[in-house]
User: Which sequence fits this backbone?
């Protein structure tokens, strides 16, 4: 398996994600339970300005609860869509994954939030296996 594991205890995961966003040449598709990290929002806005296809799917409930998430997206050019889980309102779109240029997958417990970066113990798995990418592309 071609994989790399990152832990917030050891390094800045946001910095790594930001570099992947900046290196994207075609697309960034992310399904995120929570999103409020201004650094990552800025990187996504930069990708949009460079002509990269950026698409976000966010959990509707968490988005509606989070003033910072709403403000980040209201002041951005990032295309986003809100979803609930399989049972509709009250259930969660609980994913945390991103696909870069249809070649690399990030997944794990890491939410794209300030809290995940600065307070929590989180993990991020970086995968480049075709089967894993295809499965997550279908889910997205």
Assistant:
């Amino acid at each position: 398996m071609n994989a790399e594991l990152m832990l917030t205890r050891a390094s800045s995961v946001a910095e790594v994600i930001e570099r992947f966003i900046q290196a994207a040449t075609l697309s960034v598709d992310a399904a995120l339970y929570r999103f409020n990290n201004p650094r990552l929002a800025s990187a996504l806005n930069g990708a949009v300005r460079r002509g990269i296809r950026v698409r976000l799917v966010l959990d509707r409930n968490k988005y509606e609860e989070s003033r910072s998430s709403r403000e980040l997206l209201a002041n951005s050019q990032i295309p986003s869509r809100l979803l609930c889980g399989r049972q509709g309102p009250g259930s969660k779109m609980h994913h945390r994954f991103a696909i870069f240029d249809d070649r690399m997958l990030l997944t794990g417990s890491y939410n794209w939030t300030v809290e995940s970066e600065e307070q929590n113990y989180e993990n991020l798995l970086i995968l480049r296996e075709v089967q894993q990418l295809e499965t997550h592309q279908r889910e997205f």
Observations:
- Residues 84 and 90 are 7 Å apart (CA to CA).
